[in-house]
Design a protein that fits this description.
The complex is a heterodimer of chains A (161) and B (760).
Chain A lengths: L2 E7 L2 E7 L5 H8 L18 E4 L2 E4 L5 H4 L3 E3 L12 H8 L9 H14 L5 H8 L9 H12 L10
Parallel strand pairs in A: 1-5
Antiparallel strand pairs in A: 1-2, 3-4, 3-5
Helix pairs in contact in A: 3-6
Chain B lengths: L2 H12 L11 H6 L24 E3 L5 E5 L8 H13 L6 E5 L16 H27 L7 E4 L2 E4 L2 E7 H5 L10 E2 L6 E2 L23 H6 L14 E5 L9 E4 L2 H4 L4 E7 L2 E6 L2 H11 L13 E3 L11 H7 L3 E8 L2 H6 L3 E9 L11 E6 L4 E5 L4 H11 L7 E5 L11 H15 L3 E4 L2 H7 L6 E9 L5 E9 L9 H5 L24 E8 L15 H18 L4 H7 L4 H14 L17 E11 L2 E12 L4 E12 L6 H20 L29 E6 L19 H13 L10 H8 L1
Parallel strand pairs in B: 2-3, 9-19, 17-18, 21-22, 25-26
Antiparallel strand pairs in B: 1-2, 4-5, 5-6, 7-8, 9-12, 10-13, 11-12, 14-22, 15-20, 16-17, 16-19, 20-21, 23-24, 24-25
The chains are: A alpha+beta (161), B alpha+beta (760).
The complex binds FE2/S2 (inorganic) cluster (2 copies).
The site of one FE2/S2 (inorganic) cluster has 12 residues of chain A, from loops.
Chain lengths: 161, 760
């Protein structure tokens, strides 16, 4: 069952040995050593494990390696531009949009995929896109404002007291 | 040296040399793996609290480190404590990093719970930093051969007054020395008094405290560089998964080991009495093996998998839980009694009664509990996100038949836990598995382990009764609460191996409620210490969320019965000036117009609007909340549109941090109000994932949550901000639903079916 597999993650090829039926999340975390994608449920119910494959936000916890081979996989670590947070990541920092932050991988990756698809997403669009992402700390208001900083830059920051 | 000792050295020695000082653990984030591993004989104990080096280190590159036994559970405590230290030390906050929790590096300042960190650890750190500044000034005076009075400290540099060229950085002055200065410390934990003779800065001169300093942890959390406990890796680390009993108290009958032997990387089944775990070389292998043994989302029965359990069916029926709570053996306790309540009720013109019920609810961390343990005969090194590393050092030592001196807990932040979830229990699981296989083992719970086995907030039942006189004044108030033990925190693994053991203390209900009003006759009492169905643990604002729901919804019923404005009715029965101040501040910001609640059924089944108000005094923090809702009678759905919160937690260290906490409390408590209820059958919890236990999603967040901070002034000491604003929410929503529809909701949660039933 265990066999050589090559994954293309954040622009680099990673040869690993793994069971093609095993889920992408564990290869990314345990074998490639990334911290961005998180285990939250393993059931495609929370979004903590989200990565971007072919422009779409995908739950790595239910994506078998066999389905990921040959695809361009982007993780949270891959969003950085020249070693700096990308504009969406910077917007999360500027809004201080985190409490524990465990959900943020999913929020950022899902929002990044949305922005690519719909650069002027409204608050309702953002809510709809993030509907499958759970945050237990209740950071929702700040997450919405952070994404709006990118998609609705005309809204003054700090508009909501 | 062991991996644990290496990590400890890594942090103490290397942390100060990283540039920027934004991330606490840059070493781990970069190298991804903690280096191994020869052996050391002993595990260092916590440092001596009376020594300056226990609290502070200044490094040659003019960075510094603050050490604290407190941890950050996602609330931003790290940054707030750093602000307090930077302020007293006159040191730039962006060059000050913080090491938290690790038992060999920090002083035991008590567990991190109860929203008590800023209140109790704040003054300890303030005094230590002030003493540190004084000691460094002495050293600078000696360096410049002058008097201490002539030394000025600012932004990490000492200068001789009127001689700006005579200037030295803190780092150059200390020159890599350990700060071996006695500052003194008396007492323990929360009550410890540190550096009792330190001269503190005049709060009028504060420049860092009171500022919305950006949180130190957030940049690494948004880039993926942050190392959560779930991300810690050790060389040679194996992966373990637990296989819990089918029924809560089922007995393990047999395990067919052959069923899992073929799994690549299989190492060992760990079975001790009713404890069952499996260890593999890979995480995927451990997950697969555990599945074959019976660790699945919805198990098909006690004997459907390779591990066979007895068919234990001892839980009460879910629909009978309120009766079970009332009938649970326990202790009656009077919280407060004055006047002659029964007489006043008997002779009253008008008496109202109501009963309020709330279900088991869960912490529901987004990241399941995780721990790594490396247990040998000589020592146990643990990596954990626990809220109480110093306490765990003692408790886990007992579990392992060791002495605390043989244990080190390395603290790493976990996903938010909001009380005490499974984090301590995962430590026990990992420790038992590591002890069995003789290698470091990482255990992460599956989602169903977390939902199914994390200790829950208990169900609570409350009866209220009040008398109103002809002038619409409350003359008597009687409140009786059935609150099962809030935290009966036997370690799960310890119970399963027949070695019951406690983590921390037992939590009781009565002190949880604060009698808030000023009635001529009042009696508040509770029935505590009952054990009901499932293991419990403190859940954010333990019992206070539920008791505030009952008190503040019932007072609203009294206001409505007397056709009074609900704000004015509260003010008429209150004397506490700080309570009155938050109610008035919330009302002013909201634009409150006095009127009685409408309380009429919606016309033609159309969606109806309403407003609600409630407040709490939670351990001296006052919070008043007002919310607008729209109730759709057709669907039974409640949409909250606007929330205004006024909070008085005294002097605020970081205003944006407080706002962030209030927003989080509001959303989470709204989720508990609208959605959350643990379900169970006679064997075990059945709400084992986010489908069975839904929480609030983006479609139901309010349009705005507006926070007003009241009495933010050094003359009021800092009180907690991490929990109090959870308390009023259920009452606010219940009261707003009444205003909109005339229906009284007295049972949590307010799911659509229940709302619809109340409307008909
Ligand atoms: S971990 Fe993949 S959706 Fe929850
Ligand atoms: S910030 Fe903690 S789960 Fe979202």
């Amino acid at each position: 069952m265990i066999q050589p597999i090559t994954l293309t993650v954040n622009g680099h090829d990673h040869p690993i040995n793994a069971d093609p039926k095993s889920m992408l999340l564990y290869a990314l975390r345990d074998q490639i050593g990334l911290h961005g994608p998180k285990f939250g449920c393993g059931l495609s119910e929370c979004g903590a494990c989200t990565v971007i494959i072919g422009g779409a936000a995908v739950h790595a916890c239910v994506t078998p390696l066999a389905a990921a081979v040959g695809q361009k996989i982007t993780t949270l670590e891959g969003l950085a531009e020249n070693g700096k947070p990308n504009p969406l990541q910077q917007a999360f920092i500027d809004e201080q949009a985190a409490q524990c932050g465990y959900c943020l991988n999913g929020m950022l990756m899902t929002a990044q995929a949305l922005i690519t698809r719909n650069p002027h997403a409204t608050r309702d669009d953002i809510k709809a896109a993030l509907q499958g992402n759970l945050c237990r700390c209740g950071t929702h208001m700040r997450i919405l404002r952070a994404v709006e900083r990118i998609t609705q830059p005309q809204i003054p920051t700090g508009a909501t007291p | 040296m062991s991996a644990g000792a290496k990590l400890r050295l890594s942090r103490r020695d290397l942390i100060g040399f990283a540039s920027g000082m934004v991330v606490s653990f840059p070493l781990l984030a970069r190298s991804d793996m903690i280096n191994s591993a020869t052996s050391v004989a002993t595990v260092p104990p916590p440092p001596d609290a009376a020594k300056l080096y226990a609290w502070l280190a200044v490094h040659p590159d003019n960075t510094a480190t603050l050490y604290t036994g407190k941890v950050d559970v996602g609330t931003g405590a790290q940054t707030a404590l750093a602000q307090i230290a930077a302020e007293e030390l006159d040191f730039p906050i962006d060059r000050l990093s913080v090491v938290m929790g690790t038992t060999s590096e920090t002083v035991n300042q008590g567990p991190t719970y109860g929203s008590l960190t800023i209140r109790y650890a704040g003054p300890q750190i303030r005094a230590a930093a002030a003493a540190g500044r004084a000691a460094l000034i002495e050293r600078a005076a000696a360096h410049f051969s002058t008097h201490a009075d002539l030394i000025e400290a600012k932004d990490g540099f000492f200068t001789v007054k009127n001689a700006p060229q005579r200037r030295i950085s803190y780092g150059a002055l200390v020159a890599g020395d350990r700060l071996d200065v006695t500052i003194g410390a008396k007492g323990r934990g929360f009550a410890m008094q540190v550096a009792p003779h330190a001269k503190l800065k005049n709060p009028a001169d504060y420049r860092v405290v009171g500022q919305s300093i950006a949180r130190k942890d957030i940049p690494a959390k948004v880039t993926g560089a942050f190392t959560y406990v779930q991300d810690v890796k050790l060389p040679g680390m194996l992966h373990g998964r637990v296989v819990r009993p089918y029924g809560v108290h089922a007995t393990l009958l047999s395990v067919d080991e052959n069923a899992v032997r073929q799994i690549p990387g299989f190492v060992q089944i760990v079975r001790r009495d009713n404890f069952l775990g499996v260890v593999c070389q890979t995480e995927w292998g451990a997950i697969k093996a555990a599945k074959i043994l019976g660790s699945v989302l919805h198990p098909k029965g006690p004997q459907a998998y390779a591990a066979k359990w007895s068919n234990w069916q001892g839980l009460p029926a879910m629909q009978d839980i309120a009766t079970v709570v009332r009938e649970a053996p326990g202790k009656n306790a009077t919280v407060l009694e004055h006047g002659a309540v029964d007489q006043a009720l008997a002779s009253a013109q008008r008496v109202l009664k109501a009963t309020f019920e709330s279900p088991f609810q869960m912490h529901g961390s987004i990241g399941p509990s995780c721990a790594i343990a490396e247990v040998t005969r000589e020592r146990a090194i643990i990596w954990s996100g626990t809220q109480m590393p110093h306490q765990d050092r003692h408790d886990i030592a007992k579990l392992l038949d060791m002495n605390p001196d043989q244990l080190e807990i390395n603290w790493f932040e976990a996903a938010g836990a909001y009380g005490r979830n499974g984090l301590d229990h995962a430590v026990a699981d990992a420790a038992i598995m590591s002890q069995a296989v003789g290698k470091p083992v990482r255990v992460q719970w599956m989602r169903w382990d977390e939902h199914g086995w994390e200790p829950k907030g208990p169900p609570i039942v409350q009866d209220l009764e009040a008398a109103i006189d002809a002038n619409g004044k409350v003359t008597a108030w009687k409140h009786h609460m059935w609150v099962p033990t809030l935290g009966d925190s036997t370690l799960i693994a310890a119970a399963l191996i027949g070695h019951p053991n406690r983590v921390g203390s037992i939590g009781h209900g009565s002190p949880a409620v604060t009698y808030a009003y000023d009635f001529p006759n009042a009696q508040i009492s509770g029935h505590d210490e009952g054990k009901v169905a499932l293991r419990t643990a403190w859940l954010r604002s333990p019992a206070q969320f539920e008791t505030t729901f009952a008190m503040e919804a019932f007072i609203d019923e009294l206001a409505a019965a007397t056709k009074s404005d609900p704000l004015q009715f509260r003010l008429d029965h209150l004397k506490d000036p700080r309570a009155i101040a938050v109610l008035r501040a919330a009302a002013a910001h909201y634009g409150w117009q006095p009127r009685p609640a409408h309380g009429k059924p919606p016309k033609n089944g159309q969606p109806a609007k309403g407003r609600g108000i409630a407040w709490v005094n939670r351990d001296d923090t006052r919070v008043a909340t007002i919310a607008d809702v729209i109730v759709d009678p057709a669907s039974g759905r409640i949409q909250v549109t606007r929330v205004v919160v006024a909070q008085d937690c005294g002097l605020v260290i970081n205003p944006d941090g407080v706002r962030n906490q209030v927003e989080g409390n509001v959303i989470q408590s709204l989720s508990r109000t609208l959605h959350e209820e643990v379900t169970f059958d006679h064997a075990n919890v059945t709400s084992r994932d986010w489908v069975g236990y839904p929480i609030l999603r983006f479609d139901q967040v309010p349009d705005s949550i507006e926070v007003v901070i009241v009495n933010n002034d050094p003359k009021y000491p800092s009180h907690g901000a991490g929990e109090p604003s959870t308390c009023p929410t259920a009452a606010v929503i219940a009261n707003a639903v009444f205003d909109a529809t005339g229906a009284r909701l007295r049972q949590l949660p307010f799911r659509p079916a229940r709302v619809k039933a109340a409307l008909t």
